[in-house]
């Protein structure tokens, strides 16, 4: 999604400089929400204000929206069928490998020192043992950062 | 009421999903499986598999899917819109007032502190998919083989998913 946005706006239409695009992308990654939506929203704002922002977000979200609506419609109707269940059991086993590998790749980059590891471990134990809402893990991590990492 | 709940649930997800779709999964699961019971655990896992097959962001897929299941087209629209709303508001805020917001030491500290939180959430995701996604030795075999093929770059994600599904069809559908 991101390379597509870049090629369209920076290379083809030339309405945005390379630097402005990179700036938007890095802000998009530090805000909550989907990175593609944030990027679309930021470049929309930079190019043409709030109208363009909303149009860009719609354009980013609508293709997924419609494909998922169609899939959900079919899936909810047919999910009980034994063959569909068999397909998903097999697919799910490889989803496990996809996710574990992605976690490994992202997780490697997420921590820099033993404080990070210790905080991560403490938060994980909290998450598994107490059943707190995951949003508190986000707030606690951020809070530690404000105290320790300024 | 359902629409209001959908709106609030995905607004929460939108505001707190830092660090990409994968790290948002515990948040999404909490809202749609535990709090509101819109999806069962197996349905949530199947949604994960469906999301991997489509190109869009995983959180958007989850919002659209759940909204559609619970409240039809309008539900899908409300949930997806609620998830995107924080992006709309926060990006306006950043562009108009805070273009240098990340240079603020408190913001920088907060963002830096999110890294271990991200790792904790990701590990929780990995543990729970291992626990819930593998039921027997055949699943374990598929998973390990698939992981090795991916790791060494022998196969792309979507072909691997379809292959896994096809093998599942042969193995589990047979009996």
From TrEMBL, chain B:
Major location category of this protein: membrane
Record's bilayer topology term: Multi-pass membrane protein
Pfam family for this entry, one: Chromate_transp
Keyword S-adenosyl-L-methionine: no
Localization (cell): Cell membrane
Keywords: Cell membrane, Membrane, Transmembrane, Transmembrane helix
Transmembrane portions of the chain: 6-27, 74-98, 110-131, 158-174
InterPro entries for this protein: CHR_Transporter (IPR052518), Chromate_transpt (IPR003370)
Leader sequence residues: none
GO CC annotation, single: plasma membrane
One example GO MF annotation: chromate transmembrane transporter activity
The organism's place on the tree of life at top rank: Bacteria
PANTHER family in the cross-refs: CHROMATE TRANSPORT PROTEIN-RELATED (PTHR43663), CHROMATE TRANSPORTER (PTHR43663:SF1)
The family this protein is said to belong to: Belongs to the chromate ion transporter (CHR) (TC 2.A.51) family.
Record protein name field: Chromate transporter
């Amino acid at each position: 999604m991101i390379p597509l946005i870049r090629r369209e706006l920076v290379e083809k239409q030339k309405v945005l400089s390379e630097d402005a695009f990179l700036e938007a992308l890095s802000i998009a990654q530090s805000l909550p929400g989907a990175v593609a939506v944030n990027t679309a929203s930021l470049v929309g704002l930079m190019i043409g204000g709030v109208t363009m922002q909303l149009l860009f977000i719609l354009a980013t979200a609508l293709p997924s929206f419609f494909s998922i609506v169609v899939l959900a419609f079919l899936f909810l109707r047919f999910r009980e069928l034994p063959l569909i269940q068999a397909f998903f059991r097999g697919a799910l086993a490889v989803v496990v490998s996809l996710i574990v590998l992605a976690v490994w790749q992202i997780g490697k980059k997420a921590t820099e020192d033993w404080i990070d590891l210790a905080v991560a471990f403490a938060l994980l134990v909290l998450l598994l043992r107490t059943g707190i809402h995951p949003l508190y893990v986000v707030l606690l991590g951020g809070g530690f950062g404000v105290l320790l990492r300024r | 009421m359902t629409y209001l709940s959908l709106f609030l649930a995905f607004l929460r997800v939108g505001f707190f999903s830092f660090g990409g779709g994968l790290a948002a999964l515990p948040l999404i699961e909490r809202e749609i499986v535990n709090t509101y019971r819109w999806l069962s655990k197996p349905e949530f896992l199947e949604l994960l598999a469906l999301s991997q097959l489509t190109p869009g962001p995983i959180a958007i897929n989850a919002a659209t899917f759940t909204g559609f299941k619970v409240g039809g087209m309008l539900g899908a629209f409300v949930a997806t819109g609620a998830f995107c709303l924080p992006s709309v508001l926060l990006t306006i805020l950043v562009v108009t007032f805070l273009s240098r917001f990340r240079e603020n030491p408190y913001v920088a500290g907060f963002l830096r502190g999110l890294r271990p939180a991200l790792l904790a959430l990701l590990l929780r995701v990995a543990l729970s998919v291992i626990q819930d996604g593998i039921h027997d030795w055949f699943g374990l075999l598929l998973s390990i083989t698939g992981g090795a093929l991916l790791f060494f770059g022998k196969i792309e994600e979507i072909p691997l998913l379809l292959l896994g599904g096809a093998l599942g069809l042969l193995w589990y559908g047979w009996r």
